[in-house]
Specification:
By secondary structure, the protein is an alpha+beta fold. About 16% of the residues have low confidence. A 5-stranded antiparallel beta sheet has the order 8-4-11-14-13, with no helix packed on it. It has a 4-stranded antiparallel beta sheet with strand order 9-10-15-12. It has a 3-stranded antiparallel beta sheet with strand order 1-3-2. The radius of gyration is 24 Å and the shape is globular. The termini are far apart. The chain is built from 3 helices and 15 strands.
């Protein structure tokens, strides 16, 4: 079925995927379909790998006005033949919901800290934060307000506001303390191990 897909760049755009690296290993020939994609271009071709660039518009944060309820990713692939998937929120397991799309708004942002982005003028109805699978989806907020939905089940969606911050509120209250605790434990462990080794070395150097 993957050999029927010609818009992989569009399908990966909600994840903010910029590049695909194909390593030339034993089975790499089965990925030849990457060269047939309308929205992937070859940036680099070497003996050991090929680097593809996603030419479909994508962004870490973007604005949309459309909403489509879907059951699964297979349905998304089918819809991508007729719908521009970067112009809508796709709410998983909310079939029947539909708000017509009216364009994609790529939003410039300012990186303030590791867990805070500054957002400026927004004209769209909703703002989507492109988080890859595996990144914690809960804990994000826009101007202190939690997401109203999750795009594709794991990307936070907010009611649009202008000149506000998007931040990960759990970073300070949960992850930062855990980071310091882990760092302190690591330092203590290293000191303990090194201290033991130093004592052993000193003992070995004692002559009778």
């Amino acid at each position: 079925r993957r050999h029927e897909v010609t818009n992989l760049g569009e399908l990966l755009a909600p994840l903010n995927v910029k590049y695909i690296i194909l390593l030339h290993e034993v089975d790499y020939k089965q990925y030849e379909f990457l060269k047939r994609q309308d929205d992937l271009s070859i940036e680099l071709a070497l003996d050991g790998l090929t680097l593809f660039r996603n030419t479909y518009p994508h962004s870490l944060i973007y604005g949309v006005n459309g909403l489509v309820g879907i059951r699964n990713w297979t349905e998304l692939v089918e819809l991508s033949r007729t719908e521009k998937i970067m112009e809508s929120v796709f709410a998983m397991e909310e079939t029947g919901r539909y708000v017509v799309a009216s364009g994609l708004e790529l939003l410039p942002l300012e990186y303030k800290t590791f867990a805070k982005f500054g957002l400026y003028e927004v004209s769209s109805r909703w703002v989507v934060l492109s988080l890859p699978p595996g990144i914690k989806k809960n804990g994000w907020s826009l101007n202190g307000v939690r997401p109203i939905s999750m795009n594709l089940g794991f990307m936070p969606v907010f009611e649009a506001q202008s000149n506000v911050d998007i931040n990960f509120r759990l970073f300070v209250s949960l992850y930062l303390p855990l980071y310091f605790i882990s760092t302190a434990a690591l330092i203590f462990g290293l000191i303990f191990l090194l201290g033991g080794r130093i004592k052993m070395l000193k003992f070995k150097n004692i002559s009778f």
